[in-house]
Structure formats: C-alpha cells, structure tokens
Design brief:
Blueprint (H helix, E strand, L loop, with lengths): L5 H6 L1 H19 L11 H25 L8 H23 L7 H27 L7 H15 L8 H29 L18 H4 L3 H31 L5 H14 L2 H12 L5 H23 L9 H32 L1
C-alpha cells in the first residue's frame, strides 16, 4: 500500500523532469548562436512562425496552470502529457529563434533572444511554483507566474521586424536613460540639496561635514562643462535616433552592420553618463571627474564618427555632427583647464 501523498508526488514527477529540460533549453538559447540559413530568409514567414509558437506556449501555460489549480489533480499519465506539450511548445519557440540568421543583425537578434529567454524563464518559474504549491489550492504565486508567461508571450507582436527598427528601439531606450540622469543632476543643482540626505548619520563616523554634502566654488565651476557634456550626450542620441529613423535601411549586409556598429557604441553612452554623474556629487574627486568626462567624450566622438561614415548620414546631416563634435571638444577642454591646478597639486604631493 502506498504511503499517503505518494500518488500526488509521483503524479508531479514529470514536472521535475520538465523543469530540467526547460533549464537546458534556456542555457542553449542564452549561450548559442543562430546559424546561417541554408534557404533564403523570409521575414513574413519567420514572424508568423514566432507569433504562432509564442501563442501556443501561452496556451500550454494556461492548460498546465489550470490542471493544478483545483482537485482532482491530474494523473501521472496526464501530467506526463502536459509536460511533453509544454516542452514541445518551448522547443518550437527556441527552434524559430535559431532560424533567425546572424546576417539579419545582432541588435535584432538580441531582442528576439531576450524575448525568447523571457518566455522560457517564465515557464520555468511557473513549473517551479506548481511544484512548490500545496496541492489543494491555487496560490497567488501561481496566478502571477501564469500571468508572467502570458505577458512574455505577448511580446512577439511588439518586437521590431528588422534591424533598423531594432536599432531605433535600442537608441530610444538609451536616450531615455540619459534624459533621466540629466534631469536628476539638474534637480540636484537647482535645489542645492544634499544627495545623501536619505542616509542616516552613523554613530561611529559622526557628522558628515560640509565637504561631504556641498560643492566648493572650484567644484561648481567644473560642474558647468560636465553638464555640457551630459547635454551633448542627450543631443547626440536624439540626433542619431532621428537620422536612423529617417535614413536607416536594413536592405544590405553593409547597412545592417553599420546600424549594429551604431547601436553598440551608442549603448556605451548611458553607463558613461552615469559614471560621470556619480563622480560629480560631493565630495567631488576632480581626478575621477576628469577621467570619467574623458571617457564619455571619447565615446561621444566615436558615435559621431561612426554616424558620419555610415549610410544614415547624408551630406545634409553633416552640419550637426560637426557642431556636436566641437561642443564635446569645447567642454572637455574646459574640464581639463579647471582640473589642471588640482592635478598639479596632486603631482607635487607624490
């Protein structure tokens, strides 16, 4: 005679196997690379297949969740069938992702891979939630996990359809981050507030002196060209986004590669802006500010250079590229001048 609970535990055994299989698929999607297609790539066919597989996965998630939402629980055989259907749906999603050739663009491929990864991760989470949920009830966690799979599967309809659209999306995301960083710094300057006001005073460290919470006169002079660099970052991304929208094409391998180069270097702007912004808060280390400003300036000039030599920049657009290059140099020269005395003083102490 079986011990109490042995039947339900055995019925859910296929779910443990399913979890292992899904984790293996996830690892392959994350680490693997799609190969070049043997047949000509047909975008409508690919996007239709991706949408169908995402839809089928959403339906399998619903069936799996409902089966374990109330008694009677599925038999071992039914659970095995449910697990196989889920696994087949996920394998179909991964297979379609792998049919997207490298030649369609790394930016587009990354977005499709991220969407695929999110679907697989959501299904793993749902499977784990069911395994950890008491058998008698439908938990809030199970509802949330099911909803997460649905949301992940709905992404297929919102994905960009070619590398030009993918790069537009990537640049817009970078621009949003830079705008937020710039606004935050502008508020800090206007309000003159203590950026560390939310940190409680430490009994052992004692009071934080003015040097830790306010900018000196020399610091404030340096803040001007630093803000100028941050504004140039925003303007650069805004302009590049505009020309990619207006002139960007994904008709040839050269055009696709140029768009990827732009997206890759533009992706370095927001972390560089963040690093500069963090070093600008008091207590300011002028050497760190200068180094971070130089890094940002280098990234911006590279973005402008790549833009100028690509198909997205016809002669009519070269004026603003030259203007922004000059603005970056102008602000960087000011930062060098304002920090020269600090560096000279630092060298004297060594």
């Amino acid at each position: 005679m079986e011990p109490a609970g042995a039947g339900p535990r055995r019925a859910r055994e296929p779910l443990r196997d399913l979890r292992g299989a899904l984790r293996a698929v996830l690892a392959r999607v994350r680490e693997g690379e799609p190969g070049e297609a043997r047949e000509p790539f047909e975008p409508p066919r690919f996007w239709d297949a991706l949408g169908q597989t995402f839809k089928a996965t959403s339906q399998e998630a619903t069936k799996l969740s409902l089966a374990f939402s109330r008694p009677p629980l599925p038999s071992a055989e039914d659970c095995q069938k449910l697990s196989e259907d889920v696994q087949n749906a996920i394998l179909a999603v991964a297979t379609v992702y792998y049919s997207l050739p490298k030649g369609q663009g790394t930016t587009l491929r990354k977005m499709v891979r991220d969407a695929t990864t999110e679907v697989v991760e959501g299904m793993i989470q749902l499977t784990e939630t069911i395994l950890n949920t008491p058998l008698e009830s439908l938990s809030q966690e199970q509802l949330i996990s099911t909803g997460s799979v649905w949301e992940a599967c709905e992404q297929a309809s919102n994905l960009p359809r070619d590398n030009q659209a993918a790069v537009v999306s990537a640049l817009a995301a970078c621009l949003g981050v830079v705008k937020d960083a710039l606004e935050e710094m502008e508020h800090a300057l206007v309000e003159g507030r203590d950026p560390y006001s939310d940190i409680m005073e430490d009994e052992e460290l004692g009071f934080r002196g003015n040097r830790d919470t306010y900018w000196s006169e020399a610091d404030r002079k340096l803040l001007g060209p630093c803000m100028g660099l941050m504004k140039a970052s925003k303007a650069c991304l805004k302009k590049v986004l505009g020309v990619v929208k207006a002139h960007g094409k994904a008709d040839s391998s050269e055009q696709i590669a140029q768009l990827d180069d732009l997206a890759d270097i533009a992706n370095e702007i927001s972390p560089s802006v963040d690093e500069l912004a963090l070093s600008m808060y008091p207590p300011m280390n002028q050497l760190a500010v200068r180094l971070n400003a130089a890094k940002l300036a280098s990234v911006l000039k590279k973005v402008l250079e790549i833009t100028k030599t690509s198909h997205v920049c016809p002669p009519s657009e070269e004026g603003w590229v030259q203007f922004l290059t000059g603005a970056v140099d102008h602000n960087m020269d000011k930062i060098k001048n304002f920090t020269q005395g600090y560096l000279a003083d630092l060298l004297c102490r060594i």
